[in-house]
Design goal:
The protein has about 325 residues and is mainly alpha-helical. It has helices spanning about 5-20, 30-50, 55-65, 75-90, 105-120, 160-170, 180-195, 200-215, 230-240, 245-270, 285-295, 310-320, and strands at about 275, 300, 310. It is globular, with a radius of gyration of 22 Å. InterPro entries: Fido, Fido-like_dom_sf, Fido_containing.
Length: about 325
Amino acid sequence: MSREALYRLLDDTLADVQKRLGGLPSPAEARAIWDELWIHDAHNSTAIEGNTLVLREVEELLRDGRAVGDKQLKEYLEVKGYADAAQWVYSQALAPELGGDGELVTLTQVRHVHRMAMTPVWDVAPHPDAGPDEGPGDFRKHEIHPFPGGMVPPSRALIDPKMRDWLDAVEAIRTESDRHPMESVAAIHVAFEQIHPFIDGNGRTGRLLLNLVLCRLGYAPAIIQKREREKYLRALRTADRGNFGPLGEQIARAVLDNVLRFVVPALAGPARLVPLPSLATPELNAVALRAAAQRGRLKAQRAENGQWMSCRAWVDEYVASKYQRVSGGVERS
């Protein structure tokens, strides 16, 4: 699928969710949906930075407050801090607490997100080079070495003005019309990482701020999967050179995946038609469902945009018939 087709599919899917399912629900209205996003976000975003907790360990930590496994305390606190910050970010979806002048993000909120994400782990394992005024929420007083690929973060003396320029760029997203919003949020995401305003935790904070902007614009959050870490880093390096397309595409896929995987199935119920990826399971993936629909084995309809649509009841019926044994003990395919 081309990048342009992906953006159209994202726009069409969100319009369909709005029209047929009443739109993206707020965290207060649909806690279960947002909790699933929250757990997967905390797991994957910290794993990108090297955290080794597996999804089950993250889930038990966040749902039950139990530190299962034999990992270092630092790793549990990294996840807990990120999750605390993500909960605040998600609370901004559809009912944002904007700044005094209605800004999408304020400097106070940038510091707040970093402070929430980093304080738990900082209390037991602060950055070894941090000075007394470089803790969570404080901008760095150190210079940063060039990144892989050659990009050099600005001098510490320029962080304040650079961040104020960044806030202006965030605000401009609402009026930009010359590129898709996913490429606009990609541009502000990479710009934050280029500034690297904190001595530690810029990757996690940058992804939290990316989701803060997405939530306040009415999108589902983007979760960059840990298996896509190298692709994500390559897209960031490409964006360093001014090409925001690959990163915008990755963000768009992440938003679309979350809408189809978590939001649509929870809102649709068993009888409402939804895109096939929303009905996929580990045992029956979207490719298998599409093949069954194309062969006429699974009841489905083709939407105007070419997407196959079915419902949970029809999939359950297909699964039951697929494994029903007929005379002679032969399994029907």
